[in-house]
Amino acid sequence: MRGLFTLWNLFGLIVFLLGGAFYLKGQERMGPAALPIPAEEAAQNTLVLVLLRPNPPEGFLKETRTLELGPGETPGGKALELWSEAASAPRPKALFFQGKRLWVDLPQNFALGLDATLEAFRLYSLAYTLLSTFPQAEEVRFLVEGRPSAGLAHLDLSKPIRLP
Question: What stretches pass through the bilayer (predicted)?
Answer without folding.
Answer: 6-24
